[in-house]
Design goal:
By secondary structure, the chain is of the alpha/beta class. The chain is built from 21 helices and 16 strands. The strands form four sheets. The protein has a six-stranded mixed beta sheet, sandwiched between helices.
Length: 563
């Protein structure tokens, strides 16, 4: 159990937070009634943390596939980033990608943590100070702080850890912050009338609880699916179903949300706050050191942007008309829908030029994925738009993309595109789904057929361990060949004999039956691997067909499918 928060733990914190918010996104969206009931707080928090995670991930030059990470195949730090650079990257990424009121506040909370910890080390006392600094920074960023919100939840977490005994360990401090935040969240309907009337807890506070749970899991050394980040403690559950008012039904509030990044001197921000405070409400200004994220609700968006121009250089400007957004959520974007063709399309996310070409031959639009960086929700959304179709089937081919794909699909549905996500976990499942795709069928029937084909395909892959680690098959060492079946390490083989390991994997898969074996060869496969495996199949299972594709993927030397 680690006694300090290091760069690797910050990386885990980001991943766990993203997984937790991905799982809770729709729930948090449904809770969103304050400050504007536009039902997007969960999505905004997810996008904010996604940006933070990408900035941190970029610091680590050595990576493996998501499956290999789950198997514990990542080795030591290898002279990687420091705690300070990791925390600063997390805060900076959140600032750049902050969406909505809660996203901007979360970015300021993370900035407070980074500023307090500095070069570290981060022991229990340092985390206490960091949580207090974060809570204070959150209040400072909001022009008119309101209790019963994410600010209250952050302050409760800071108060709780300050009351712990001095001898408390780092993991105990992090867990106490999470528990106190959950308790404070349950009280928010009593503190803010609009929450009490709707029968919900604060949406932003719910998101912060997930992030604090992820922190507790990261510093305690829990697995990537730790119990706190993905939990919903009883104190968070509200018994009544929220009856959220439509955004357009609030004629007394400002009509527009204005958000932009601002390059400006720190001494110019006080004047900007005063100017924007006079124009509207829900004002949050986070950041520092020349870069700021500005969020405000106003009736005159032009004046809000002009205030930014007077203070510095605004960019990435986003202006949302609340009433129009509400209407689009109900009926989609008619103008965009009219531009779409009648055709149905399939979008497939794959690694390697060989796989990409194979999917294109089957008629799919391809989003090429980097083996060291998962595509963001924005990139997935762009690929769906590129398909230019009224109906789109999205093949993920990676279990870790499910949350990002959900965000992208929701965005496109709001634009009038009917999107069905088939959560294929491997490219062989994606190929099986593509093989039965039939555009002439009704959309729902086509999705069912493709999902069934994918589900009937067992999958496996080979990966190379980058360090010593515990797996379900025992302890692996750096350089060992790992055989993963349906996502779990089933075989640990010698680095010098990849063929033998692959043969063992095939034998275990075919022991449960099968009619066809698909072998997708990666760029790091040993010469002759595919030929040896085809011969092995013909010798041991002569009634089973085998087909080989040169996938060119860099993440796995071999991907196997059995149908």
């Amino acid at each position: 159990m680690p006694h300090t928060l290091d760069a690797a733990a910050v990386r885990d914190w980001c991943r766990l937070s993203l997984a937790a918010l991905g799982q809770a996104r729709e729930e948090i969206d449904a809770l969103n009634v304050y400050p504007v009931p536009d039902g997007d707080t969960g999505t905004n928090l997810y996008l904010t943390v996604e940006s933070a995670a990408q900035q941190v991930e970029a610091l680590f030059t050595v990576g493996t596939t998501g499956t290999a990470r789950t198997a514990g195949a990542v080795g030591g730090d290898g002279g990687g980033p420091t705690l300070e650079t990791a925390l600063r990257a997390m805060a900076h990424g959140a600032l750049l990608g902050a969406r909505g009121n809660s996203g901007v506040i979360l970015s300021q909370l993370l900035r407070g943590v980074a500023a307090s910890v500095g070069a570290g080390p981060c022991d229990a006392d340092a985390l206490r100070r960091a949580l207090r600094r974060a809570a204070d920074a959150g209040y400072e960023a909001v022009a008119v702080p309101v209790e019963g919100t994410v600010l209250t939840v952050a302050a409760a977490a800071a108060d709780a850890v300050e009351a712990l005994p001095e001898a408390a360990e780092l993991s105990a401090v992090a867990e106490a912050a999470f528990e106190a935040a959950g308790t404070a969240l349950a009280l928010t309907p009593q503190q803010l009338d609009v929450l009490g009337r709707a029968g919900v807890v604060d949406a932003g506070g719910r998101g912060l609880v997930a992030v604090l749970g992820a922190l507790a899991d990261a510093v305690s050394g829990q697995s990537p699916m730790g119990p706190l980040a993905l939990a919903t403690p009883r104190t968070m559950i509200v018994s009544t179903q929220p009856e959220r008012p439509r955004v357009a039904d609030d004629p007394d509030g400002p009509a527009y949300e204005v958000v932009y990044l601002l390059d400006a001197r720190d001494d110019a921000v006080a004047g900007l706050r005063a100017r924007l405070g006079g124009l509207g409400d829900s004002l949050v200004v986070s950041g520092g050191e020349g870069l700021w994220n500005v969020h405000v609700h106003v009736d005159d968006p032009g004046a809000a942007v002009e205030a930014g121009v007077e203070a510095g250089r605004p960019h990435r400007i986003r202006i949302t008309h609340f009433a129009s957004a509400a209407a689009e959520q109900s009926v989609g974007h008619p103008a965009h829908f009219e531009q779409l063709g009648p055709a149905r399309a399939v979008v497939s996310i794959v690694q390697g030029e060989g796989l990409a070409g194979l999917c294109r031959e089957c008629g799919a639009t391809v989003l090429s994925a980097d083996p060291d960086r998962a595509p963001s929700s924005a990139e997935i959304a762009a690929a769906i738009r590129l398909a230019h179709a009224r109906e789109v089937v999205l093949l993920l081919n990676d279990a870790e993309l499910r949350a990002a794909a959900g965000v992208a699909a929701d965005q496109l549905r709001d634009e009038g595109v009917r999107v069905a996500v088939i959560p294929t976990r491997s490219p062989v499942q994606g190929l099986a789904a593509l093989a039965v795709h039939e555009p002439a069928r009704r959309f729902d029937e086509d999705v069912v057929a493709m999902t069934s084909a994918a589900g009937a395909t067992r999958y496996a892959e080979l990966a190379v361990a980058e360090g010593e680690s515990w797996t379900m098959a025992g302890v692996c060492q750096a350089g060992d060949v790992l055989g993963l079946i349906d996502g779990d390490v089933a075989v640990i083989g010698d680095a010098a004999d990849m063929v033998a390991t692959a043969g063992t994997v095939l034998d275990r898969m075919l022991a449960a039956g099968g009619e066809m074996v698909t072998l997708i060869v990666g760029e790091d496969a040993v010469p002759g691997l595919a030929d040896a495996l085809v011969a092995h199949v013909r010798r041991t299972n002569p009634v089973v067909d085998a087909v080989v594709y040169e996938g060119g993927q860099g993440a796995a030397p071999l991907v196997v499918g059995v149908e």
